[in-house]
Structures are given as structure tokens and as C-alpha cells.
Amino acid sequence: MHYYTIKPLFTPDGHSIDMSLGDEAVTIISHAAYNAIENEVNVYDMFIRGDHQDVLVFNDLNAFKKAAEILKNHQIQFTTNIVEKTAGENADYITNNYRYKVVIPNEPNIDSIDDNDIYT
To answer: pLDDT tens across 23-40, in order?
Structure first.
């Protein structure tokens, strides 16, 4: 099964790409986006931590789209990937619950998703 990830962009030293918001604001908005969607659908997984390695994981494309729109509305830059669960050391993302490996980088493209798109 594939999952959709959103990862806000930070510089290697842990600072937000968009310094007008600040590092902590990006993490707070990311967490808020996840929580807002969680109340509507079954959101899958997330990892928010102090060193700005935040990643949001969705098993539903509509939930992914809603969270991405929230971040876009706040002008937060992020990457997206389609991932699958993995075991072992080859994980690209590690949350408290699972390990994920990117299978399709930079997808879904939030600017070109329409309601008929299906990623499997």
C-alpha cells in the first residue's frame, strides 16, 4: 500500500526556508494541518520533533490535499513523496510507528492534482 507524505522544508541547520514565519511556526502549522484533517478522515501517521524533521503521512489522497492546501495557504514550502512501509535501514522517513521508503519522489504534485487522480 502506498502513502502520501508532506515534509516542510528546512535548511540543513534546522531553520525554516521561509524565515518570515520562523522555525517553530512552521512546525506548529504543520501539526495543526494534520490535526485539522485528522478530525475529518482517518489520517495515518506523523512525526513532529524538535529538530525539524517533521513529516506528515496520509493514506487518503483527499486528506493529503487538504493538509497541503493549509501549508500552501501559509506559504510554507514542502516536498511530497509517495512512500511505502519498509523494514530495515533503507528507510527515508522514520516515525514513532513505522519506517517508510520513497517509491515515487515529488508526487503527488499538489499543483496538478484533480479530484479524479488516483495514486496506487
So the answer is: 677 777 777 777 777 666
Closest by CA position to 60, among listed 4, 117, 19, 120: 4
Q: How many CB atoms lie within 10 A of CB 77?
A: 13
Residue 117 reports pLDDT greater than 60: no
In angstroms, the CA 120 to CA 71 distance is 24
Q: What domains does the chain contain, in order, with CATH numbers?
A: 2-105 (3.30.70)
Q: How confident is the model at residue 120 (pLDDT cuts 50, 70, 90)?
A: very low
Could you tell me if 25 and 17 are in contact, meaning their C-beta atoms sit under 8 angstroms apart? no
Scan for cell 520513497, then name that residue.
102
First to last CA, the chain: 7
Distance CA 7, CA 83 (A): 12
